[in-house]
């Protein structure tokens, strides 16, 4: 896929066989097919394949399988309390917080003449090795187990940064397709997560958490395949002695962009909106499986519940893509944040057993609650992703998008650790859940606070660029590598 100037016809369908003009059932069926074909035509099918592998297999299936297996591994193998598990899940996120480092490397430091390919190889091998260590070691010390989990997380993060650099670069050159590309990423991730979560409970039951870790060596293997298929313009005569200067130039560009009012204000909102939504899921997970008088869900049921959440995320992407992508970010976030806070109270209904009093079984209620909360969460997340892709200056797309995503992950880390401290403060343990309802109430209230911060989000057409024009052009001689062709070549052509 060669990066060219934006085609004014991009994203527009031909008058003939236009799915938007086809009504009824067939219009519903053909619309996503035509949309997918349009992306393959405008962005090249090999680029679309790379996005699907990284987001679908590595992040979707990989994270779907690892989430449930890691929960049971920390609970049953390492014997941790809910608050401890909540904090350690935050520790596993640390490689995502340093995403700007990976982005800075892939933007400024080519290896053997290539900017992207070596980092896909690094991500893949790091993931394969870390998962095999967790799977094959009989009794791994908690510190080494956390280190291996962090290494696997780092592999996913590096692959994510590298593909994000390609996606963001294309978003700059095709601003009208920015929402479509993020929808493709979201769809791939949601479908992959659906597959991963659907199989996770069954696999944990059949082969145990450590056996699942062995299976998790497959997705990073596919990331290595992306590195093999990737075709990029080689970097000739790269001056490694000037690497320090290039890193400094990239840092200056990042700082200049961050000082822009239309950049730092959305960044502040993204961090606060995530950090204030305290994560207490490990408390709920322990309650699902261990609480006296609780539902005592099995491993298969836990996996199914997570799979329903993935379906909810998928529907959230579809809702955004088909109905909301042309609406201002500010308006979408207002309603999404409001519904996000209200939906948190559904956990309160469950923990207080109100659902049983009105005749709704635990499993059905949890499935409904999970679907609703994930739909709302994805609708809330999508405009932030699109907004982030529009805040990246040319030349350091991967670095700056990684910086924005690291801000989000700092928010997630803050949310996870604050949630763990809240569970500890309220004395929610493996056997004691009397105060879990208070944690849910506090979390739901804090989710509403970001509504008062929406003045930080720009009120603009989501299909237009946000940065000044000069920031969207790569200047020659500034020490930052020029934009290049982003394409995956077929195996046939590589033989």
**CATH-assigned homologous superfamily:** MFS general substrate transporter like domains
CATH topology: Growth Hormone, Chain: A
Shape: globular
Q: In angstroms, what separates the terminal alpha carbons?
A: 19 Å
Biggest beta-sheet profile: 2 strands, antiparallel
What is the count of β-strands? 2
Strand portion, in percent?
Answer: under 5%
- Sketch the topology as an H/E string, one letter per element: HHHHHHHHHEHHHHHHHHHHEH
What is the CATH class designation?
A: Mainly Alpha
Order of adjacent strands in the largest pleated sheet: 1-2
Poorly predicted runs are 1-17, 474-495
- By secondary-structure content and strand pairing, the structural class works out as mainly alpha
Q: What quaternary form is this?
A: single chain
Describe the structure.
By secondary structure, the chain is mainly alpha-helical. The protein has a single domain (41-494), classed as Growth Hormone, Chain: A. The chain is built from 20 helices and two strands. The chain has helices at 24-43, 45-77, 82-92, 94-97, 99-108, 117-136, 142-173, 178-215, 218-229, 243-258, 261-275, 281-290, 299-324, 329-343, 345-351, 354-357, 362-389, 397-425, 436-448, 491-494; strands at residues 230-232, 486-488. It has a two-stranded antiparallel sheet. It is a multi-pass membrane protein.
């Amino acid at each position: 896929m060669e990066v060219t100037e934006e085609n004014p016809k991009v994203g527009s369908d031909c008058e003939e066989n236009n799915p938007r003009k086809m009504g009824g059932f067939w219009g519903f069926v053909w619309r996503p097919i035509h949309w997918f074909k349009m992306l393959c035509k405008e962005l090249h099918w090999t680029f679309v394949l790379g996005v699907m592998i990284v987001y679908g297999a590595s992040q979707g299936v990989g994270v779907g399988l690892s989430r449930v297996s890691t929960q049971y591994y920390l609970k049953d193998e390492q014997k941790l309390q809910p608050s401890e598990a909540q904090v350690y899940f935050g520790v596993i996120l640390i490689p995502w917080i340093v995403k700007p480092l990976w982005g800075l490397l892939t933007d400024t430091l080519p290896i053997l003449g290539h900017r992207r390919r070596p980092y896909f190889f690094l991500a893949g091998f790091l993931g394969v090795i870390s998962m095999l260590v967790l799977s094959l070691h009989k009794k791994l010390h908690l510190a080494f187990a956390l280190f291996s989990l962090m290494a696997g997380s780092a592999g996913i993060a590096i692959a994510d940064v590298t593909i994000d650099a390609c996606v963001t670069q294309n978003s700059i050159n095709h601003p009208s397709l920015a929402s479509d590309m993020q929808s493709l990423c979201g769809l791939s991730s949601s479908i992959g997560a659906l597959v991963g979560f659907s199989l996770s409970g069954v696999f944990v039951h059949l082969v145990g958490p450590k056996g699942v870790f062995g299976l998790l060596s497959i997705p990073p293997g596919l990331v290595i395949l992306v590195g093999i298929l990737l075709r990029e313009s080689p970097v000739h005569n790269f001056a490694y002695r000037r690497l320090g200067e290039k890193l400094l130039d990239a840092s200056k560009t990042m700082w200049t962009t961050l000082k822009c009012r239309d950049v730092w204000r959305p960044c502040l909102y993204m961090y606060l909106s995530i950090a204030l939504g305290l994560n207490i899921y490990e408390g709920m997970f322990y309650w699902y499986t261990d609480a006296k008088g609780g539902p005592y869900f099995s491993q298969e049921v836990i996996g199914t519940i997570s799979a329903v959440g993935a379906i909810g995320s998928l529907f959230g992407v579809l809702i955004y893509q088909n109905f909301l992508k042309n609406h201002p970010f500010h308006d979408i976030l207002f309603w999404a944040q409001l519904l996000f806070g209200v939906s948190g109270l559904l956990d309160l209904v469950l923990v207080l057993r109100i659902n049983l009093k009105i005749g709704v079984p635990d499993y059905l209620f949890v499935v409904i609650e999970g679907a609703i909360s994930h739909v709302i969460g994805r609708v809330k997340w999508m405009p932030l992703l699109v907004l982030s892709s529009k805040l990246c200056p040319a030349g350091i797309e991967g670095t700056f998008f990684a910086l924005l995503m690291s801000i989000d992950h700092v928010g997630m880390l803050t949310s996870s650790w604050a949630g763990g401290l809240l569970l500890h403060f309220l004395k929610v343990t493996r056997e004691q859940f009397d105060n879990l309802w208070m944690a849910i109430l506090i979390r739901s209230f804090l989710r509403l606070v970001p509504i008062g911060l929406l003045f930080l989000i720009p009120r603009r057409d989501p299909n237009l660029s946000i940065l000044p024009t000069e920031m969207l052009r790569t200047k020659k001689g500034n020490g930052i590598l020029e934009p290049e062709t982003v394409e995956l070549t077929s195996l046939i052509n590589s033989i």
